[in-house]
Amino acid sequence: METDEEDVSRVVPFQLQFDKPVASQIKIAEWNPEKDLLAMVTEDSKILLHRFNWQRLWTISPGRCITSLCWRPDGKAIAIGLQDGTISLHDVENGKLLRSMKSHTVAVVCLNWDDDTGEEVSDGNFVPKYEDRTSRFFPPAPRAPRMPGLVPGETGFMDESENLSQELSNSSHQRFNILCSADKDGIISFSIFGIFPIGKIDIHDFSVCCPLANQQVDCKLLNASICKVVLSKDLCHLTVLCSGELLPEHDLHGFHCLTLDTSIFYKRRNELHQVALQASNIEDLTEVIRASLSVMSKQWSDAMHTFHDKFDSLSSLIHDHGLDSTPQEEFLSLIGGARTSPAVHQFLVNSLGEVVIADQGLKRISKLVCGAGKELEVIVLEHLQPAAEMIGFRIGELRGLSKWRSRYQGIGLDETLISNATEKASMLLIQVQRFMRVLSSSVQQFSNFFNWLHKCVKMLMSEPSDQQQLLAFNSELVILFLKYLYDQDPVRRLLESTEVDNSIEVDLETMERVQELAHFGGFTDFDYLRRTLAKEFQQMESCFKEAFQMPFITISKKILCQNLLPLFPIESISKSASSSVPTSISYYKEEMHSKQYSFVDYISFILPDEPSSQLANCIVVMRCLMNNDLEAVLLFVPDGYHCIDLSLYKECQLVLLLNGPSSENMEKACMTIVQADDLPFASIPSSEASSPWKLHELQDSIVYLQMDSLKVREIPHSVIAPLAVSASRGVACVFATRKRALVYILDEDEDEISDAD
Amino acid sequence: MASIVKGQSGFAMTPHKVSICILLQVYAPSGQLSVPFPFDSISQHNRLALFLIALTKVHFLRYLNSLYHDDYPAALENLNRYFDYSAGMEGSDFVPPLSCINNGRYEIALLTLGMTHFHFGHPKLALKVLTEAVRVCQMHSDDTCLAYTLTAICNLLSEVGISNITGIMGASDSHVSTSLSVQQQLFVLLRRSLKRADSLKLKRLVASSHLALAKFDLKHVQRPLLSFGPKASVQLRTCPTNVCKKIRLSSQLIHQYDNESSVVTVDGALSTSWLKNQRKPTTTLVFPPESGPESNCDAFYSWLQSSSVPGSVLQLVGSSYLVSATSWELYGSASLAQSNALLFANCYADSSSSADLALAYGKLIQHLAVYKGYKEAFVALKIAEAKFLSVSKSGILPVKLQLLHERALHRGHLKLAQQICDELGVLASSVTGVDMEIKTEASLRQARTLLAANQFSEAASVAHSLFCKCYKFNMHVENATVLLLIAEIHKRSGNGVLGIPYALASLSFCESFNLYLLRGAATLTLAELWLLLGPRHAKRALNLIHSAFPIILGQGGLELQSRAHIAEAKCYLSDSSISVSEDPDIVLDSLRQACEGLEALEYHEMAAEAYYLMAIVLDKAGQMEQREEAAARFKQHITALENPIKPEDPLVNLL
Q1: Residues of A (33-92) whose Cβ lies below 8 Å from B
Q2: CB of A246 within 8 A of CB of A252?
Q3: How many percent of chain B have pLDDT more than 90?
Q4: Where is the Anaphase-promoting complex subunit domain (chain B) (predicted)?
Q5: What one-character-per-residue DSSP string does A591-652 give?
Q6: B267·A507 Cβ contact <8 A
Q7: What is the pLDDT of residues A240-260, one digit of tens each?
C-alpha cells in the first residue's frame, strides 16, 4: 500500500514549486524570456514583478487600464499596451518608465516583441558588420536637464539611476528586434527596438482572393478586431488572429487567420537596424534639446521677472518726483557723475536697500540673475551643445547610408531629405553658438551692472567702502547694459518659440558674410540667422520628422497579405466574446535539409462554446508547413473537463489548463502536456470547399484527448486564465479562482539534474 | 632704430633680426644700449613684446619697412592691421605684477624671445631660450610666467617635428627625459602646464592647454608612462572621446572668462566698436526718443556686435572649433567637419586671427573641391584670394596649389602637376622640422605625380624616403597615408601580392588612429589588390568593398566614391556567379554613379575606364543605343587625356 503511494508520488509530474496567495485577480501574466521573473497585471491595472521565489521586485500602476503586456527579447524591459492606445516601456530593474509612445488611438490588445535570432542564414550574401562609431567619438550622450524645483522622481524620468535607464532605452547594444502592436480596430504597428516606428498597417485594407461558394472572390475584412499577432522567429511572417466579417458576404462573421508577408524585415534587417539605431538616437537627442530649451526659457524668464519687478518701481518713482525721463537716463547721469536724482537716490538707498544693510536687496537680486545666467550656461555647455553636435554626427552617418542607393533606397532612406536634415542640424550648431555668445555677454553685463550699482549704493550711503571688497566694474559696459539690456532681453528672444513672426534683424555685414559663405559650401538659406534658436530647433525637428517618415511609409507599403483563412463562424451575439478566445501561437525550428532550418508555426486555440456548433469543448491545433500547406487537428476535451487556457511550450508541446473533472463539491483542475507534432494532422484543402469555414471540414478527424495516457498534474483549486508558461525556464504559473498563484516545474529533466546535485 | 633698419649695404634685413633688436631694446637694462629708438613711449610699456608674440605675420615690421621705403599708404595699412591684430591681446596676463617688475622682466624677455625665434622658424634656438626661461622662472618662483613658458614649449614641441630632444629639456626634466620618448615628454609637459594653469586660475591658459591636449590626443596613442608587469590590457588606439571632451572643455572658456580676476578689459576698446556701430544708419542715438518695435530689432544686432566678450577669448573658443573641424576630417565625418568650419567662419570671423580664418576658408574650399568638383571650388578660391590678398597669402596659397595639382593630375597634365609640386615644396621653410605639414604634402604629391606618370620605382623611392622621414618625426597619421600610397604604387604596377602587405599595414595604422575615412580608402585599395590577383577573389573583394561602403559613400569625396563604384562593378563583372546580361542594372547603377562623380572632377583616366566598362555591360545586355553613347564618352575622355592642355583653360594662368 505504502509502496504504491510512493510510486504514485514519484510519477506525479510537474512538481509544485509553491502556492502563494495573490492580492488581486491576475489578468495577464508573462515570464521574462531571460530571467526567472514573472510580470503580472492585476484586474485593477497594477503591474507586479515577482521573482521565481515569489519575492516581489516592484509594483507600478500606470493609472490607466492595461490591455496587454510583453517582454523585450533581451528581458530587460517590459512593454505595456494601454486602453488609450499608448505603449510604454518600463525598466525591468525598477519599473521606471523609459519611453511612452502613442502609436494607437484605441486599446492595444496585443503586443509581440521578437528579435532577429542572429543566425546567419547563408544565402550567399555577405552581410557587412556595421559599427556605430558614435560611442567611439563622443562621451556618453547628454541627458535632459532637470527642471528646477521639481521633486526628483516626479517625472519618472530623472533619478540617480538615470544612467541605467538611459542605457536601457538606448538601442546601441541591442540585437535587431521588432515590436508589433495590434489594437482593437485592426491596426497593427511595428517599431524597431520598440521605439522607432517603422510601419503601420490596417488589416481592413488587405483584399485576399478566397474561395467562397465555389468561386474565387476578393475578400475584405470588415469590423475586424484583432485577438493575437505573432511575428515569426525569422521575422518573415506575421500571423494575425482576428474576428470580423468577411466581405462581400455579410453573414460570414467569424474568426479568421491572416498571414502577412513581412519578409522586408528579414531581407533588410541590417539596413533597418542601422537606420533605426541612428534615428532613434537622434530622436532621443532632440528630446534633450527640447527639454534644455524649455528649462532655460523657464529659468531665465523667472529671473528676468524678478529683476523687472524690482526695477520697474524706479520708473514710477521718477514719475512721482515729477521728472520726465527714463530710468536709463537717470542711471546714465549717475554714471556720468552729473547728478543723482532724488528718484534714483530713493530707489537705490531705500527701495533696494530696504533692510538694515543697505545693499542686501541688491545682493539678492544680483545673485538671482547671475545665478540663473550661470545655470543657463551650464545647460548650454552640458546638454544643448553636446546634443546638437551629436545630432550633427549621427545625421551625417545617416546621410552616408542614404547614399548607398542600392541598399537603402529600398527602405525609404531618402538622400535629399536626409541632406536637408543635415543642413538644418548644422544651422542649429551655429545658432547654439550665437546663443552662447549672447548669453555669456548678457550674464557678464548684468553682473557688471550690479557691481556698479553696488558701489553706487555704498557711495550714496556714504559708507566707508573697502576697495578690496567691491568688485571691479567697467563703466562702458554699464552704458552698454543700459542701452541694450536694461529693458530688452535678447536671451529670451532667442529662446522664444512663439508663432508670431519674431525675426531677428541681421546687419548688412553679417548678411554679406552669409551670402559669401554660400559660395564656400555654406547654407543657401540666407535667413537662418533671422530665426531664433527655438524656431531653428522647430524647423530642424520637422525636417527630421519628414526624413524619418519616409522609411515608415515605404516599409508600410511593403507589408503584404499572403493568406486569409476563415476559421470558424461566431454568432454575432457573442461578438464581444470573440476577442477572448484563448489562443497560442508559436514557431518551432525544423530541420529541412542537411543544414537548413525553417520555421513551422503552430497555432492553437480553444473553440468557443457556441450553441449552434456541434464542436463543443474542442481545441484546435493548426500548423502551417513550409509549402504553405495547412494542417489541423481537433482535440476533443473529455467530458467533465473544461479547457481554460493553453500555451505552446518548447519542442512542439502544448500545455493545457483544464478545469475538472467536475465533481459535486470539490473544485479541481489539472494541467497536462500534449506532444503536438504527434497528433494526426489532417490537411485542409485550400480550395473546392463546400463551406468557407475551414474547421467545418475537420469534423471527421476529431481526436479525443486521452487523459489517462498523458502526464496530468492535478491542481486542488479551480483555475482561471491566464496560464503563463516559460519555455526557457520550464515553468508554468497557474492562477486559481481563489486568488492564488501556483508555480509548477514543467521541465522534469532539469529537475532531476538539480536533484542529483 | 632707423640706423638699425638701414644698416650697411649688404646687411640683409630680416623681420627676425628687427624683432630681436626691438626686444633687446625693450628688455635690456637701461643705460647699457644707446641705440636711438623712435618708440620711447611704447617701449615704456613692455606690451610691445606681447604684440610681437601675437604677430604671426609681421604687420608691425612691415609697417617699419614701408615707412623706411617712404611708402606711407602701405605703412598706414600695416599699422592698422597691426593694431587690429593686437586688439585681441587686451587683458593679457603678461603685465607683470608691480612688485616684481624688475625681476619679472628677464624671464618674460626670454619667453618672448623664444616665441619670436619660434615664429620665425628657429625651433632649436627657441627651445634653448625657453628652457632657460623655465630655469629663470623657477629661480624667481614666477609661477605665472612658468605656466606660460611651459605652454609655449608645448606649442613648440607639438608644432615642430623634433626627432630627438634629449639633452635639450634635460635641465628642467632630468628625471623623465631619459626614459621617455619625445611624445611622452610632450604629454607630461602638457599635463603639467595644464595643472599649473589650473591651479593659478589662468582660465585662458587652461583653455589653450586643453586645446593643445586635444591636438595631442588626436594624433597620438596614449601609452601608460610607466608600465609594470604584463602589458595585456593596453589597447593601442587613440582615444577620440578624450579629444571631444577636451575640445568641449576649452570652448567652455566663453562662460568663464569673467571669473578671471586679473583680466581687466581695456578701457576704450568697447567704445571703438560702439562708435563703429554709431556710424551705421541702424542706430541713431544712444537712446532713441521712441523705442518702437523696429528699433528693438535693430538694437539686438548692434548689441551683439558690440558684445563685450574679449577678443582673445573669442579667438581661443573659435580655434577650438577649428581643431574640431580638423579632427572630424581625420576621423571621417564630412558633415561635421564642414559644419564646424562653417561655424567658425560664421561666428568667429571677426575675432579670429587671419591665419585661422584663412585656414577655415581653406578647409571649406578643399571640402568643395573634394565633394562637389573643381568648378565650385575655384569660384570660392577666387573669392578667398581677394579676401586674403594682403593679409595672409600663405594660408590660401597651399590650398590653391593643392587644388591645381589635383586637377592637373586628374586631367592628365603631368608636367604642370610636377611644376606645382615644386612650387608647393618651395613654400616650406628649409629648416629641419619646420613646416612639416607642407613638406610631407609636397613629397606625397610628388610621389603621386610620378605614379601618374607610371614611373613606379621613382615614385616608390620618394614614398619610401617620406616614410622614413615620417617615422623619424613620429608622424604616424601621415605614415598611414604613405603606406597606402606605396600599396597604390604596387597596385598600379600590377604587383598585387607586394601591395597587399602595405595595404594591410596602412589598415592597421588607420585602426589604431581611428582614421575611418582613410581606413575606407585602404580597404578599397586592398579589395582592388585582391581583384588584381584574379577573378576567384572577386567575392572577397566585393565583401571588402561593401564593408567600407557606408564610410566611403558617406564621408568620402567624389574620387573615392567613384573608385569604389568602379571597383564594385568590376567585382560583379568578374564574379562568374552573377550574370550581368540578366541583371545589368546591378552593375550599371554603380557605374552611372561613378561617371557622375568623375565628370564633375574631370578625371579623364578613370572616367574613360568607367565608360568602357559601361559600354561592355550595355553590349552584353543588348542595349545598343546606350552602348554607342557610352563608347562615345569613352572616346571623348581618352582624347582629352591625350591632349591635356587646352588653350581655353582659364586655370592654366592661375599660377
Answers
A1: none
A2: yes
A3: 18
A4: 59-158
A5: E-SSS-EEEEEEEEEEPP--SS-S-TTEEEEEEE-TTS-EEEEEEEPPTT-EEEEEEEETTT
A6: no
A7: 888 888 877 666 778 888 888
Using a 10 angstrom Cβ sphere, with 0-12 exposed, 13-18 middle and 19 or more buried, the burial of residue B498 is middle
Distance from CA of A549 to the nearest CA of B (A): 21
Residue pLDDT, tens place only, B269-284: 455 555 555 444 443 3
The single-letter DSSP state of residue A205 is: G
CA nearest to A412, candidates A557, A270, A299 = A557
Looking at chain A from residue 231 to 290, which residues have their Cβ under 8 Å from any Cβ of chain B? 274
Q: Identify the pLDDT of residue A667.
A: 77
Q: Does B576 touch chain A (CB under 8 A)?
A: no
* Cis peptide leading into residue A248 (ω within 30°): yes
Highest mean pLDDT, choosing among A537-546, A648-657, A695-704: A537-546
Inform me whether the pLDDT recorded for A374 exceeds 80.
yes
Q: Is B578 on the interface with A (CB under 8 A)?
A: no
DSSP B379-406: HHHHHHHHHTTTT-HHHHHHHHHHHHHH
Rounded CA gap, A730 and A747, in Å? 5
| E strands, A127-272, in order | 177-183, 187-192, 196-202, 207-212, 215-231, 237-247, 253-261
Of B303, B338, B361, the CB nearest to A484: B303
The set of cell numbers assigned to A447 is: 553682473
CA distance A82 to A100: 11
Cell digits of residue A130? 556595421
DSSP-derived secondary structure letter, A234: T
For residue B589, the chain A residues in CB contact (below 8 A) are: 405-406
Mean pLDDT value across chain A: 79
Output the pLDDT for position B144. 74
In the prediction, which pLDDT does A425 show?
A: 93
Write the CB contacts of A232 (distance below 8 Å, at least 6 apart in sequence).
Answer: A114, A238, A239, A587, A599, A601
Q: Which residue of B has its CA nearest to A487?
A: B296
- pLDDT of A453 > 60? The answer is yes
Task: Write out chain A residues lying below 8 Å of B367, CB-based.
Answer: 521
Range picked from A678-682, B271-275, B296-300, B309-313 for highest mean pLDDT: A678-682
Is beta strand A630-636 parallel, antiparallel or unpaired with respect to A702-704? Answer: parallel
pLDDT band of residue B524 (cuts 50, 70, 90) is very high
pLDDT: which is higher, A696 or B169:
A696
Q: In angstroms, what separates the C-alpha of B417 from chain A's closest C-alpha?
A: 25
Of A126, A374, A429, the CB nearest to B343: A429
pLDDT tens figures, A260-287: 888 888 888 888 888 988 898 898 899 9
Residue B488 above 70 pLDDT?
yes
| Partner B, chain A 611-650, Cβ-Cβ below 8 Å | none
CA separation (Å) from A307 to A58, A352, A369? 46, 11, 7
- Determine the residue of chain B that is closest to A140 in CA distance: B241
Which of 532-551 (B) contact A at CB < 8 A? 539, 542-543, 546-547, 549-551
**What does the alpha-carbon distance between residue B420 and residue A239 come to, in Å, rounded to a whole number?**
68
C-alpha to C-alpha distance for B236 and B514, rounded to whole angstroms: 11
Cell of A390: 551629436
Tens-place pLDDT, residues B361-389:
999 999 999 998 888 888 888 888 888 76
Chain B segment 352-381 residues within 8 A of A by beta carbon are 361, 364-365, 367-368, 371-372, 376, 379-380
Q: Residue B339 and residue A440: Cβ atoms within 8 Å?
A: no
C-beta atoms surrounding A175 within 10 Å: 13
Alpha helices in B11-122 (DSSP H): 15-27, 40-44, 47-54, 59-68, 72-86, 101-119
Probe site for chain B from A519, A523, A525 (most B CB atoms < 10 A)? A519
